[in-house]
Design a protein that fits this description.
Elements: E1 14-16, E2 19-21, E3 28-32, H1 40-53, E4 57-61, H2 65-77, E5 82-85, H3 93-96, E6 102-105, H4 119-132, E7 136-142, H5 148-152, H6 160-176, E8 182-187, H7 191-204, E9 210-212, H8 222-236, E10 242-244, H9 256-270, E11 285-288, H10 300-310, E12 320-324, H11 330-333, E13 339-343, E14 347-352, E15 355-361, H12 365-379
Bound molecules: iron/sulfur cluster.
Length: about 375
């Protein structure tokens, strides 16, 4: 069996530049640049390195007019299929669409700007821009930034239903205005939730191509194991048309995301089952973002590695520590963690179970984190194994 011969959902074809996902096309590998988008040379080098490693689509974050200008230059220096990652400022799509093949928007981010304007108007704007510039769209729903109206409709313990409903609403609206050149992603840092939410989505909309991934999977090898545990289950069920493995690795190792994705597909093809224990592994869970252009201090990847190293003594404690690279997504993405850290330019913010504890310098943060971890271990009645 190879991954192209498994029975896959009969999804629509969605063209992204020179490739097509869905409709039985080979499962495409994707990655994202973690360089500063305004640094044209570094971003071109990374986009080309990823494409050379086998990335069919390379995503780039753009948050400002300066970065959209850089994107124009980046476009002229690479033949990679490019996707742009938009955050709150959805209007930037107008500036960037001429230089990319796909626009990714997050339904949960359409609420921050022009709050009085209905999200449907904003999506219609994005669709008009995409149509004019021959771009596909990805509706990218993420566990840490779900549409607040959807969250309020469900019990706090149910984080899957708001994600699902948000995606289904956007699909219905896109269809209603005659735009079908889109795919959907539903990402969570918990592999079991990734399986559940994508499985439910695929049951409801089997014709919509899915981009699969476990967000903030963290550092290798655990980040790869978590991703494979979720994606193997889904892909075996015929769900998924394109994948990304999100890993916290330094920029010169970003190609490892593509290698890991290829290995997942090869294992699937060879019938090699992954370690299912990664789905519900007990013990300390460190989640960390893969970094992107928005990362606020280059020390982020090193910080994540030091957190992992420092907390090794608590490896058997059933606690979650989240380490994020920026203040845009850090506060939301650390909401469900026992201890959450997110980077600013000079300080690292720290949160314990939703309570902000303050900002600490890059030198101070580890001792403070350790003190908080020890306090939680004691509180939970676990004995430290130091
Ligand atoms: S948390 Fe911030 S730095 Fe990390 S990947 Fe997300 S947007 Fe980028």
């Amino acid at each position: 069996m190879n991954s192209d011969s498994i029975s896959r959902n009969p999804t629509r074809p969605v063209r992204i530049g020179s490739i097509t996902v869905g409709a039985g096309h080979p499962i495409a590998l994707q990655s994202m640049c973690a360089t500063k988008t305004a640094d044209v040379d570094a971003t071109v080098a990374q986009a080309n390195a990823l494409a050379q490693a086998g990335a069919s689509v390379v995503r780039i974050a753009v948050d400002s007019p300066r970065e959209s200008e850089a994107l124009q230059e980046i476009r002229s220096q690479t033949t990679a299929n490019l996707s742009v990652d938009l955050q709150e400022n959805y209007r930037l799509a107008l500036d960037v669409a001429p230089w990319v093949d796909k626009i990714r928007y997050n339904p949960g981010h359409l609420y921050h700007h022009e709050r009085e304007r209905p999200w449907q108007d904003k999506v219609r704007f994005l669709v008009d821009v995409a149509g004019e510039h021959d771009c596909a769209i990805r509706v990218g729903v993420n566990c840490g930034s779900v549409d607040p109206e959807k969250r309020e409709r469900y019990e706090p313990a149910d984080s899957v239903s708001p994600m699902l409903e948000s995606a289904l609403d956007h699909c219905e609206f896109l269809d209603s205005i005659g735009f079908t050149r889109y795919c959907v992603s539903l990402k969570d840092s918990d592999p079991a939730k990734v399986i559940e939410v994508n499985g439910r989505f695929a049951a409801a909309r089997p014709e919509v191509p899915l981009h699969l991934g476990v967000t903030e999977a963290g550092m290798p090898p655990q980040g790869v194991q978590k991703t494979q545990a979720a994606l193997h289950v889904l892909l075996t069920e015929g769900i998924g048309d394109t994948i990304r493995v999100s890993l916290t690795v330094p920029n010169d190792r970003k190609y490892e995301e593509i290698e890991a994705g290829r290995k997942i597909l090869e294992d699937l093809a060879a019938g090699r089952a992954p370690d299912a224990a990664a789905l519900n592994r007990a013990g300390l869970n460190i989640i960390s973002c893969p970094s992107c252009s928005r990362v606020e201090n280059e020390a982020f990847v090193d910080l994540a590695a030091r957190v992992k190293q420092m907390t090794a003594y608590a490896a058997d404690k059933p606690l979650t520590i989240a380490v994020m690279g920026c203040r845009v997504n850090g506060p939301g993405e650390t909401d469900d963690a026992d201890l959450g850290l997110w980077c600013g330019p000079n300080y690292v913010n720290l949160k314990r179970r939703g309570e902000r504890l303050g900002a600490f310098s890059y030198d101070e943060i580890l001792p403070r984190l350790k003190a908080e971890l020890d306090a939680l271990i004691e509180l939970e009645g676990h004995s430290s194994t130091r």
